[in-house]
Amino acid sequence: MKKLSSISTKMVELETRIEELKKIKEPGEDLEVCEEELRGLEDLVLENAQDLHSASSRSQDLQTSTKTPSANSPAATFGLSSQSPRNTATVA
Q: pTM here?
């Protein structure tokens, strides 16, 4: 998921850079290179930058919320932890 988030960030940065370059009278090859890189990333992930960024953000929010145990969860209610119990048996 981290890689997808990084790709999403790169795509948004490329879109911003493309908009900046379009304002310049003669952007040279930079504009063409940025557009080509963005198209390549869109082909790779099959999404445009904004849709991927939205999906990535929602996924990160979901991951964060599932990692934090709820105070109303059964484990919290009974004082249980996610750690496995130790083997306390002794050999005589």
A: 0.58
> Which domain, by its residues, includes 51?
2-66
What tens digit of pLDDT does each residue of 20-44 get?
999 998 988 999 999 999 999 999 8
Can you tell me the distance from the alpha carbon of 72 to that of 61, in angstroms, rounded to the nearest whole number? 20
| CA-closest candidate to residue 37, choices 25, 26, 21, 24 | 21
**Does residue 76 lie in a domain region?**
no
Alpha carbon of 29 to those of 23, 24, 32, 34, 45: distances in Å? 14, 12, 5, 9, 25
| d(C-alpha 23, C-alpha 71), whole Å | 52
Rounded to an integer, what distance in angstroms lies between the CA atom of residue 44 and that of residue 4?
10
Domain annotation covers residue 86: no
Distance from C-alpha of 34 to C-alpha of 41, rounded to nearest angstrom: 11
Closest by CA position to 1, among listed 89, 87, 62, 81: 62
